[in-house]
Write a structure and sequence with these properties.
The protein is of the alpha/beta class and 426 residues long. It contains 13 helices and 17 strands. 37% of the residues lie in helices and 17% in strands. Keywords: Amino-acid transport, Signal, Transport.
């Protein structure tokens, strides 16, 4: 993939297996928070009075559904982003191959932002003003922050960006923005509770990434730690992993939270091993799920825990899981179908397909307004979510998963393995 704009028109190319086509018919079934009416907005109301073009927000979409995606096609996390995009594209291709949304195909236009918020803002301006997209998405909390004001003023949905910044869970302030990743405050509360259940006498340390995503996660963790009665003995940025590991070791930290971002997670583990620093427990943000990083870290990453909500395709226990079979049937050409980042990208698109179908079935038909309303009315059990977990959103609850399971990296098995039961956070 190049750094230039990439346009992908995902058209019908093959006949899908009957079992896979059957799975598509289940996409909208029981997927809204009101089982009695899948076209319901769940009580969420939007005012178009402040929109730059109210008529455009209410206009029915009858041809192509245009998605603008500002993504780090180059830069520090391009490799991980490519995995997510491959999963995303594969799910949308499957939807289009199955007939699209009431016959309308989904078209994704990519623009490179190199993981720089200012470039994401420039990309969004083009998407909104020139390309006239129906919805927009991006990768990273800093990018969401750069785009959100303009996108809300334009009343163009930003749906399921890879971000968890607590600021954008304020539905009144950002009614047209809905993030995909679990809200940082909910995720970090789960992490604090898990830490307290595993270690009695905690000396707590934090290593945070200096990006917008990392800072947002670290700030949320500090609030959750304070609410949970935990004092922070040491905190540091992970920009210089060796210096961070040395500082945390000197402080006697025995439980560590790493608010890392994809591409930086395993590097800190390697640095910790080099200075012989091995806390009793290391827990990382849920986006620290790229297996390639832990494989590179080797034994140093063994035991690192990540809160997860997605199934592990390589887990022998899910080999006969129909959802995983359907997922794998859709991703034959991706680089690493077993990587959680690929699965996450696929699920973001799966959630989008469900939302679009729900909006299309509403009384208003498919409009930007109905798409946003449908996005605020989800209780969707995607086939790649852990059993018992759904992705939920309501008029009062910004979106996110309903539960987590702790998973620890196993250097021996070269994958994440379950470290406890799924716990509801809803």
């Amino acid at each position: 993939m190049t750094a230039s704009t990439t346009m992908r028109r995902l058209r019908r190319t093959a006949v899908l297996p009957a079992a896979l086509l059957a799975s598509f018919t289940l996409v909208a079934c029981g997927s809204s928070s009101d089982d009695g009416d899948s076209s319901s907005s769940g009580g969420f109301e939007l005012s178009l009075d402040d929109c730059e073009d109210p008529d455009a927000a209410a206009k029915e979409i009858t041809d192509t559904i245009k998605v603008g995606y500002s993504a780090p096609l180059s830069g520090p996390i391009a490799g991980a982003a490519e995995l997510a995009i491959q999963g995303y594209d594969a799910r949308l291709k499957a939807a289009n191959d199955a007939g699209g949304i009431d016959g309308m195909k989904i078209e994704v236009s990519y623009k490179d932002d190199a993981f720089a918020p200012d470039k994401a803002k420039a990309n969004a301006t083009e998407f909104l003003q020139k390309d006239k997209v129906d919805l927009i998405t991006t990768f990273g909390a800093g990018q969401v922050a750069a785009i959100a004001d303009d996108q809300n003023a334009a009343c163009v949905p930003m749906l399921y960006p890879s971000s968890s910044d607590v600021r954008f869970t304020d539905i009144e302030a950002y009614p047209w923005t809905l993030q995909f990743l679990p809200s940082a405050d909910i995720e970090t509360k789960f992490i604090v509770d898990f830490m307290k259940s595993k270690v009695d006498d905690i000396t707590l340390g934090i290593a945070e990434n200096a990006t917008g995503s990392g800072v947002a996660m670290a700030e949320a963790f500090k609030k959750s730690a304070d609410a949970g009665g935990l004092e922070i003995a040491a905190e540091t940025e992970d920009t210089d992993p060796a210096a961070a590991a040395t500082k945390l070791k000197a402080a006697g930290v025995n439980v560590l939270y790493h608010g890392g971002v994809t591409g930086t997670c395993g590097v800190l583990d390697t640095a910790m091993a080099r200075v012989d620093f091995k806390p009793e427990l290391v827990v990382k943000a849920s986006n620290c799920a790229n297996a390639a990083e832990y494989l590179a870290a080797g034994q140093a990453a063994d035991g690192a825990v990540v809160p997860k909500y997605l199934k592990e395709p390589a887990d022998p226990e899910v080999a006969d899981d129909q959802g995983i079979k359907d997922y794998l049937a859709q991703v034959p050409d991706v680089t690493d179908p077993n990587n959680t980042i690929t699965v996450s990208g696929w699920m973001a698109a799966d959630l989008l397909v469900n939302t679009l179908q729900q909006a299309a079935e509403s009384e208003d038909g498919l409009t930007r307004e109905s798409i946003m309303k449908a996005s605020r009315d989800q209780d969707y059990a995607s086939p790649v979510l852990l059993d018992g977990v759904t992705w939920k959103s309501t008029a009062d609850r910004s979106g996110g998963v309903s539960g987590f399971g702790p998973f620890a990296w196993s250097a021996k098995d070269k994958r994440f393995v379950s470290a406890g039961d799924v716990i509801s956070v809803d």
